[in-house]
Design a protein that fits this description.
By secondary structure, the chain is an alpha+beta fold. It has 9 helices and 15 strands. A hairpin with a 3-residue loop joins strand 6 and strand 7. Helix 2 crosses helix 4 and helix 6 runs antiparallel to helix 7. Bound molecules: (3R)-3-hydroxy-3-methyl-5-(phosphonooxy)pentanoic acid.
Length: about 375
């Protein structure tokens, strides 16, 4: 920050280092952990990175924080300004863990001012933890080490692999949001042997994802709680036994750009994960009648030859409809016609996380204080 006094005013130039990370939709799901504290998954997963649903996060080291862990965080919301986050517990614990990881690569001193913005509404059924923790990880590492872009971070030794492994500790699925296209998270034989990589680029096979907000009322159980319950389901061992083959099959379908084959796999996969959820103790229902009506309509319309689209579901009631980009507008219109109370978000295959620097010049009265 550079201050040039001009009488009672000061011209202030601030560098904003901003990380942007996309959300992702799992085609083969991560559900159940081998080690909860390390977010070591019970199985491999395969996801598609999105392009419209994303989190943008700016982090700056506070010049005047009372204690190093006095982080401040605020959410910028569309139309409603900036809201300070009151309960920073989980994020502060994560940032203090991250600080120790970042320190060997340079500096990791000071408390952070964090401003974050989701491109999607918070109650829309897209989990913000994947994009949120991926963006936070990059923004915090950049702020502490004083780096301005991903190349600089990589030159310090903070590689994509390391960023992904760090983001994973915030939220498991965040590790896949560092990368673009189709991403394979390999469980590994030990927590340290996990590997996350893009297996196909977004250009290999752009697909549309219509996220259908059909049920805003369903009660949500946190994914942390849901993961913990997974192994209480008698179906979990059966699921584990077949997942390796299913993932291989899905990767082949992506390689061949065979939508019918991929679609059939992802529907079975989503239903199987939800069967585990519904047979866990306590039982976890993430969807009810509106989602079932939607699935029935989609399958009947497909069988009648009216559309080429397949669904998947995350830990929530709102289906993701996967189809060819050239069919998306017509399918979207059919959905809105059939389910007039719903809204849709039109997303597609996207690229991985980025880090950019922008410069802001402002005139401030001396004595003004920072803060959201
Ligand atoms: O990253 P978490 O702990 O929110 O778990 C994500 C779980 C699912 O979204 C249901 C599946 C997945 O692989 O993303």
């Amino acid at each position: 920050m550079v201050n040039q006094p001009t009488g009672k005013k000061a011209i202030q130039t601030t560098l904003h280092v901003t990380a942007t990370a996309p959300s992702n939709i799992a085609l083969i799901k991560y559900w159940g952990k081998s080690d909860a504290s390390l977010n070591w998954p019970a199985n491999d997963s395969l996801s598609m990175t999105l392009s419209q649903a994303k989190t943008t996060t700016t982090a700056n080291v506070q010049p005047d924080a009372k204690t190093p862990d006095a982080h401040r965080m605020a959410f910028k919301t569309t139309g409603a300004g900036t809201i300070p986050v009151r309960d920073l517990g989980k994020t502060t614990r994560y940032l203090e863990w991250l600080r120790n990881e970042v320190r060997p690569f340079g500096s990791a001193e000071g408390a952070l001012d964090i401003l974050t913005h989701n491109s999607f509404p918070s109650s829309c059924g897209i989990a913000s933890s994947a994009s949120g923790f991926a963006a936070l990880t990059i923004a915090a590492a950049a702020a502490w080490t004083g780096t301005k872009n991903l190349d600089e971070l990589h030159r310090l030794g903070i590689t994509q692999d390391i960023l992904s492994a760090w983001a994973r500790r915030g939220s498991g699925s965040a590790c896949r949001s560092i990368h673009g296209g189709f991403v394979h998270w390999v469980r590994g034989e030990a927590p340290t042997a996990q590997k996350v990589s893009a297996v196909f680029s977004p250009d290999h096979w752009p697909l549309a994802d219509l996220i259908v907000l059909i049920d805003r009322g369903a009660k949500s159980i946190s994914s942390t709680e849901g993961h913990a319950r997974a192994f209480t389901s008698p179906l979990m061992n059966v699921r584990m036994a077949g997942l390796g083959e299913r993932l291989k099959d899905a990767a082949q379908a992506i390689e061949m750009r065979d939508l019918e084959r991929l679609g059939t796999i992802i529907e079975s996969e989503a239903i199987e994960m939800h069967s585990v959820m519904m047979t866990s103790h306590p039982r976890t229902d993430y969807f009810s009648a509106p989602t079932i009506a939607f699935i029935r309509w989609l399958r009947e319309s497909r069988a009648a030859g009216n559309l080429a689209a397949w669904f998947t579901l995350d830990a929530g009631p709102n289906p993701h409809v996967i189809c060819r980009p050239q069919d998306a507008a017509a399918i979207n219109a059919m959905i809105l016609d059939k389910f007039p109370g719903s809204t849709t978000i039109h997303d597609q295959t996207g690229f991985g996380a980025t880090l950019q620097t922008s410069q802001e010049t402002s005139t401030r009265h001396q004595g003004d204080s920072d803060g959201y």
